[in-house]
Amino acid sequence: MTERQLPRWSELQPLLRPKPIRLDPTRRRLEDALTIADLRTVARRRTPRSVFDYTDGAAEAEISLRRARRLFRDLELRPSILQDVSEVDTTTDMLGKPAAVPFSFAPTGFTRMMHHEGERAVVRVAERRGIPYALSTMGTTSIEDVAAAAPDARKWFQLYVWKDRAAGEDLMARARASGFEALQLTVDVPVAGARLRDTRNGFSIPPALSVKTVLDAGTHPAWWLNLLTTRPLEFASLQSWGGTVADLLDKLFDPTMTIADLEWLRASWDGPLVIKGIQTVEDARRVVDAGADAIVLSNHGGRQLDRAPVPLRLLPDVKDAVGDRAEVWLDTGILSGADVVAALALGADATMVGRAYLYGLMAGGERGVDRAAEILTREVRRTMALLGVRSVGELGPRHVRLP
């Protein structure tokens, strides 16, 4: 028979530890978010549907994006046990300089639509955490203002080639004068992809006041208040626009560009050159032969050609073809530190994340971006330790198996 007794206060007291009251709602939301998926859930609640869908969505039936995420989900990580992983080093080289983690913040357009702090918030986090940051041609903060917001950050400028080549030359000159170290040319947007969520939502830049958006304002008052009471939405590289994203891309970008035009680019830019949007082994060889310092295997996050190749599946063949002649980076579908580690194990020199930090931005501004970076960094470090590796350079094909 079990003998029972009443507990003494001295025995109960250690068990009665009430959780601290967190009065700051943003801090509470972010601390409760343990994964990028959690930040996505918060972002969906905090942001108007058309803005969230612009970030979250992809082209046409969104098959490319689902395939990329499915491959990351279904791959197998293969640990090596009984290794000393008391210290794990997440640094890696990107364009010949160390980055604190093996990912950079990818260029994203219209960033102040997601949160009024926009690109300034992102680049300040990048500066603090040693993460390279690429400003988009379609960013909503000027080149000069981004440079001033984080003078010590590693900053790259992402360029779309315009029909007006003089405008492109001006952007490159401004980026160079502002201390941007590298140029990232995106080559997978000869025309805009069919982003059907945007069309169905009536998404435009800036947001148009329709019956739908007025009704939406009632459920997202803070977002609308910030939009209407802060600096008017502008672009890094043009003064204004009053139409859809697809119309803007088709009006500005040059569909006649070929690989021969890289000579024009090199005449205006003498720093490191990254070509983003590579989707075949043959194109990887071509742009490296033409002088690219790094290439990004990317299908634009599934936002251009639907049913495009999955970058992670393409990675081993491209790495074999390119060798050490250029760095090979990868994006599309990365939503965790384990995804980053898997890409490195399959041969990527580094990765880029876009949606992951934008979910954080929508969830909580600069603090949300910092939380996204913290989550990813922690996951990278933990995954490496569980795999039995102490540095990025130790990762290899033996650590991952694709389905």
From TrEMBL:
Query: What SUPFAM superfamilies does its record include?
Result: FMN-linked oxidoreductases
Residues binding FMN, per UniProt: P107, T108, G109, S136, Q158, T186, K276, S298, G354, R355
What are the UniProt keywords, alphabetically? Flavoprotein, FMN, Oxidoreductase
One GO MF annotation is: FMN binding
Gene3D superfamilies in alphabetical order? Aldolase class I (3.20.20.70)
Annotated signal sequence is none
Q: Which cofactor does it need?
A: FMN
Q: Which residues form the active site?
A: H300 (proton acceptor)
Residues at which glyoxylate binds? Y54, Y160, R195, H300, R303
User: Which residue numbers delimit the FMN hydroxy acid dehydrogenase domain?
Assistant: 28-403
Classification via InterPro entries: Aldolase_TIM, Alpha-hydoxy_acid_DH_FMN, FMN-dep_DH, FMN_HAD, FMN_hydac_DH_AS
Family indicated by similarity: Belongs to the FMN-dependent alpha-hydroxy acid dehydrogenase family.
Protein's UniProt name: Alpha-hydroxy-acid oxidizing enzyme
Organism of origin: Cellulomonas pakistanensis
